[in-house]
Automatic annotation (TrEMBL):
Keywords: Ribosome biogenesis, rRNA processing. This is Ribosome production factor 1. The lineage of its organism: Eukaryota, Metazoa, Chordata, Craniata, Vertebrata. The keyword Methyltransferase does not apply. PANTHER family: RIBOSOME PRODUCTION FACTOR 1 (PTHR22734:SF3), U3 SMALL NUCLEOLAR RIBONUCLEOPROTEIN PROTEIN IMP4 (PTHR22734). Residues 30-213 form the Brix domain.
Amino acid sequence: ETTVDPNDEEVAFDEATDEFAPYFNRQTVPKILITTSDRPRGRTVRFCEQLSTVIPNSHVYYRRGLALKRIIPQCIARDFTDLIVINEDRKIPNGLLLSHLPDGPTAHFRMSSVRLRKEIKRKGKEPTEHVPEIILNNFTTRLGHSVGRMFASLFPHDPQFIGRQVATFHNQRDYIFFRFHRYIFKSEKKVGIQELGPRFTLKLRSLQKGTFDSKFGEYEWIHKRREMDTSRRKFHL
């Protein structure tokens, strides 16, 4: 995919009128619902709880059999701006669905390499409630811009730098690596970082217009392995 120039007039117009424009115009305040596939196991539950400490104003709710199509209208009625669904397979978190409310889009990611806090070596102390900085690296195509804007809109606009916390989404060869760190000022000239966790890796499977609709949803992009994975030099984000 070709990279896009952030100063391109067409890109600027699209971003001024897309579903994320109210967030970037500061008309909405992010409020996130985090839920799971039905009957999550311990590791998935712990991952959701730790993810909620990374994303300010996020709330964990366990579905108890409720269909997503019924959850979404309730989220909208309660002023939630985004819905995150963590899926699992054999007790291990393996998928993340992110739906921007009320009008979409909805992204479906494969998730791998999940590490909870206790599994991270030399980790820092528990995160504080300060709003973190957000770093989005290497989302350079039109599709990458859309995905980057989805991640950005999960977090409040104004980071609280006193907390020295930073959440990074780093795209490399269409794999998105997430890390959560704290800066440590060792001296006036030396700065170290401590990883706080959790950490995980995402691979985009599809981007759908609107909110979740597995049957009739219109897809903006879908990953087709046999067609798209033939070249090691062509990337989509």
